[in-house]
Design a protein that fits this description.
heterotrimer; A: 357 residues; alpha+beta; Rossmann fold; OB fold (Dihydrolipoamide Acetyltransferase, E2P); 2 domains; 21 strands; 24% helix; B: 292 residues; two-stranded antiparallel sheet; globular
């Protein structure tokens, strides 16, 4: 059974077409992440699910019920907002209890649920404080607490971590993932951060310009992107794209380097293509190249250490590519060496349609 | 599309409806009524409701007392408004920097603004009394001889009296607004200017004035409008006298309407006032850069 | 650090500022002092020549007369009119402002029309209003003046509350909607608490507008709901023997406003400048 079903959803703001015919089904208990660059319509889509925006066309079903024209309060949803949306004039406890009281829960039940939610989030000692007395991370926990005290069918998150600093963001990500496992609820989560999307999602829905570019399990999208946008959006550092021409079972780069054509590719001989290679699938040459790997001589251009890994810029086929290498392997700029490229995981793109072929 | 409608669609209209109803009743109805009546010839004797054309409007131009009342209004505004502004600004500067007891000083200085204008007028009536009022005592003290000035009767003194009272009551208003505006001026800009060697007048002219202008413009507009319709203080001090010497447009319209019962003519005056205000306000709002 | 240009040698300058400040306070407060002092003087002291600068003893007989004659009731009338009309204007104005801000009801045109009503000079509408009230039988009634004051304050309330409501993060309201509030509950449980200081400040000024009104009360009241402002002018009889009453009545009518302002003062600056100064 699906807890959320969106059919042919459109949203216009005057002349601006923000959401262009989205179809989406979210099964019960799944953690779905809507991700995409800013302006892609992900937040509008989420707000339309919540009923904070009216759909211009199409329908929204939550828990098998058509709620396209229902008030937010009648949709059986809970939502966590980007700026926490805590009421400054209420203390933490009353903030968390707000939704329960609005729905006329009996006070003993409110107490019980608030205590449980506070315990889950480790904020039991903060209940009497006011939002202004809390740190950013604590506020975010309260905001999440306010959502999880409710028994909603659907939990919505609108970029809840984007106001936190990097360290806290990592901690909260773990926290949210844990909560999802413990509660087993259906959650829809919006972010522009692809790492957040990859780590949290059971399923990623990648949007651009109001349409879904691709959806699926995070690794599916990472390994088998359907087009150049998806390939380029996910992964860090970004995928390298190198111009090439297909020649039989190989692709020839501008400088004449020939790489094996990935087996799954249906590119025809003689076709001009882009070869997409993830920085993670490039390694310094080992004792011998594995099957489907290409060994290429290179000169190291630039070295950016990031700790355990190092990002190395290399010239290849008339352009520069980035390789993500283990830190201890690294050499200095100007050094000549060989790299192995795992071409079984490379993708081939038709530059005209930008689709993977 | 389905026929279903979002449930809260009319909520926003329910919210504004009562306010708009009242505004129409109290704001728009009188306008329409005045417009209609101003084309008739209704007065105390005559209830002729036939169309009289521009009869009343033509009379406006022949009515010297009307134009004098406008001139009186402008005279008071032209003197009181700049004085209030400059004095208020100077006072705001005086209290801008922190000093012990500043709050108390400010609180005391604001007293005149929070008493009712009619009481302000009454107070000055008592102060100005030629025999038992303290003003003549103070004047006599400085003049070195006994002065017996008839402030609210002597043609040479009524305007100073009215304007004095007006300035006394409303300078604190300017002061308070400008003090708040000056406190919000970005200090880093001033410090930068000081490092660049700018003198007081230069940084005042090029940093302070532009920064406080939006607030100052609104203050001038509010006070200008209030001065244009000045009624209470004059009513308390002179009731327009001696003769009609201090009759302002509001006093004159009141006299025409409620003493002479010139219904149609009063309506025409009301329209003249509204026309003048509309033109002046529109011009001022554009000129002062208040329009978005 | 000093905020604005011209600051050097703090010592003598500070002394100079105190001298100037004291002079200003004397000039601006003396009339108020004089009014209060007359109200406590005996007739002999009031009509002494040269004037006596302070009463020999504080005595309340001037006030006692006002209460005995029933004139003091006009302060009560003013209080009722100003309070009730303030409550109505705040309710109607705040919900209208909320609609203008949150739903852009009527667009910019409606907002401009409403504020233009604030520019309307009372004298331009008081005559037709008088005739309307005669027709409706509302002259010299509480509800007549309350409706008038409410309507006359609405543009100010709407204008001010619009500014305060614009400052409320939309997320707070949306969160409440999702959490199960109706639109009305959002207004009640989120918007009003968030705009609390704005509500207070606006209410104070709305109250003062109605409290200070003279022209409408002069025209639209007779004997039943005479306000204190009109009552004060009843003593302007040409002869000076009503001085004590003028002063005592004025003081009675001033004290409620003094207290209101003193209690609310920290909210008031933004209200006085019609929102031009934020904070």
């Amino acid at each position: 059974m699906s807890d959320l079903k969106i059919t042919n959803l459109h949203k216009h703001y005057g002349a601006f077409h923000a959401v262009k015919g989205i179809n989406l089904e979210v099964p019960s208990g799944e953690f779905t992440v809507l991700v995409g660059p800013s302006g892609c319509g992900k937040s509008t889509l989420l707000r339309t699910i919540a009923g904070l925006e009216e759909a211009s066309e199409g329908s929204v079903e939550i828990g098998g019920r058509d709620v396209t024209y229902a008030r937010p309060r009648d949709r059986d949803i809970a939502m966590v907002f980007q700026n926490y949306a805590l009421y400054p004039y209420l203390n933490v406890k009353d903030n968390i209890a707000f939704g329960l009281r609005a729905r006329k829960f009996a006070e003993p039940e409110v107490e019980k649920r608030v205590a449980r939610a506070a315990e889950m989030l480790g904020i039991g000692h903060l209940l009497q404080r006011f939002p202004r007395e809390l740190s950013g991370g604590q506020r975010q926990r309260v905001a999440i607490g306010r959502a999880i005290v409710r028994d909603a069918i659907l939990y919505l998150f609108d970029e809840p971590l984007s106001n936190l600093d990097a360290q806290l963001r990592d901690d909260m990500r773990v926290e949210i993932k844990r909560l999802h496992r413990e509660l087993g609820r259906t959650m829809v989560y919006v972010t522009h951060d692809q790492i957040e999307a990859m780590t949290l999602a059971d399923r990623i829905v990648l949007l651009r310009d109001g349409i879904i570019e691709q959806q699926g399990a995070p690794l599916d999208l990472f390994e088998r992107p359907e087009n150049r946008f998806v390939a380029g959006f996910l992964g860090s550092p970004k995928m390298n794209f190198v111009k090439a021409t297909v020649k039989g079972k190989t692709v020839a780069l501008a400088d004449g380097t020939a790489l094996p054509l990935p087996q799954q590719s249906k590119a025809k001989s003689g076709q001009a293509v882009l070869v997409g290679i993830r920085p993670q699938y490039i390694a310094l040459a080992g004792p011998r190249a594995a099957a489907g790997h290409a060994r290429v001589p290179v000169v190291i251009e630039l070295v950016q250490p990031t700790g355990s890994r190092v990002h190395v810029t290399l010239p290849l086929g008339g352009t520069s590519i980035v390789a993500d290498l283990a830190a201890h392997d690294v050499s200095k700029p100007g050094e000549k060496t060989h790299i192995d490229i795992d071409m079984t995981r490379a993708i081939v793109i038709d530059p005209a349609t930008e689709r993977v072929i | 599309m389905t026929a279903a409608v979002h449930p809260d669609r009319n909520f926003k209209y329910w919210l504004v409806a009562p306010a708009i109803f009242l505004l129409l009743l109290i704001g728009l109805f009188p306008l329409i009524y005045s417009l209609v009546v101003s084309f008739m010839r209704i007065d105390m004797m005559d209830t002729d409701t036939s169309f009289a054309g521009l009869y009343n409007y033509a009379n406006l131009f022949k009515d010297a007392r009307l134009w004098w009342s406008l001139a009186h209004t402008l005279l008071i505004t032209a003197i009181a408004l700049p004085v209030e502004l400059l004095l208020g600004l100077a006072m705001a500067y005086l209290f801008l920097e922190r000093m012990p007891g500043r709050q108390l000083f400010v609180a005391l200085l604001v007293l005149p603004t929070i008493i009712s204008p009619i009481v302000a007028g009454a107070t000055w009536r008592l102060l100005f009394d030629n025999r038992y009022g303290p003003i003549n005592q103070i004047v006599s003290f400085f003049a070195g001889e006994r002065m017996d000035l008839l402030w609210t009767i002597n043609p040479n003194l009524v305007y100073p009296a009215i304007i004095f009272c007006e300035i006394w009551q409303w300078t604190p208003f300017m002061f308070l607004i400008l003090l708040a505006a000056l406190s919000n001026v970005d200090k880093s800009q001033l410090e930068a200017a000081e490092i660049d060697g700018a003198r007081f007048w230069r940084s005042f002219r090029y940093i302070v004035v532009p920064a406080i202008w939006p607030v100052m413009a609104i203050a001038i507009l509010i006070r200008g409008l209030d001065l244009f319709r000045i009624f209470d203080i004059i009513w308390a001090l002179t009731q327009g006298g001696p003769g009609t010497m201090t009759e302002t447009i509001s006093i004159y319209a009141y006299v025409q309407g409620f003493k002479q019962f010139e219904t149609s003519y009063t309506a025409a005056i009301a329209f003249l006032v509204i026309a003048i205000l509309t033109v002046v306000c529109t011009w001022a709002i554009r000129r002062m850069g208040l329009a978005k | 650090m000093s905020a604005l240009p011209f600051h050097r040698r703090p010592g003598p300058r500070l002394a100079f500022r105190y001298v100037l400040a004291t002079l200003l306070v004397i000039v601006f407060v003396f009339p108020v002092y004089w009014l209060f002092s007359i109200s406590f003087k005996t007739p002999d002291e009031i009509f002494a020549f040269p004037p006596v600068w302070y009463p020999a003893s504080i005595q309340f007989s001037n006030y006692r007369v006002l209460f005995k004659d029933g004139d003091a009731w006009t302060v009560w009338n003013s209080l009722v009119l100003a309070s009730v009309s303030t409550v109505f204007a705040m309710i109607l104005g705040t919900i209208a402002a909320y609609s203008l801000v949150r739903f852009k009801t009527g667009g910019e045109n409606l907002a401009v029309w409403i504020i233009s009503q604030r520019m309307m000079p009372p004298v331009a509408i008081v005559f037709p209003i008088f005739l309307l009230y005669v027709y409706l039988g509302w002259v010299d009634t509480f509800h007549g003046l309350i409706i008038l004051y409410t309507a006359f304050s609405l543009p100010y309330v709407i204008w001010m509350m619009r500014g305060y409501i614009e400052d409320i993060p939309l997320e707070l309201e949306e969160s409440a909607l999702v959490d199960g509030c109706t639109r009305w509950e959002v207004l009640w449980k989120v918007v009003l608490p968030m705009a609390r200081s704005g509500l207070f400040a606006t209410a104070v000024f709305t109250f003062i507008f109605a409290w200070n009104d003279f022209l409408f009360a002069l025209v639209l009241t007779r004997t039943e709901v005479t306000t204190y402002t009109v009552q004060v002018t009843h003593y302007f009889g040409g002869q000076s023997n009503f001085w004590a009453k003028i002063a005592a009545m004025s003081v009675l009518g001033t004290i409620p406003v003094f207290f209101t302002v003193a209690i609310m003062q920290r909210y008031l600056v933004r209200g006085i400048s019609m929102g031009a100064v934020k904070g």
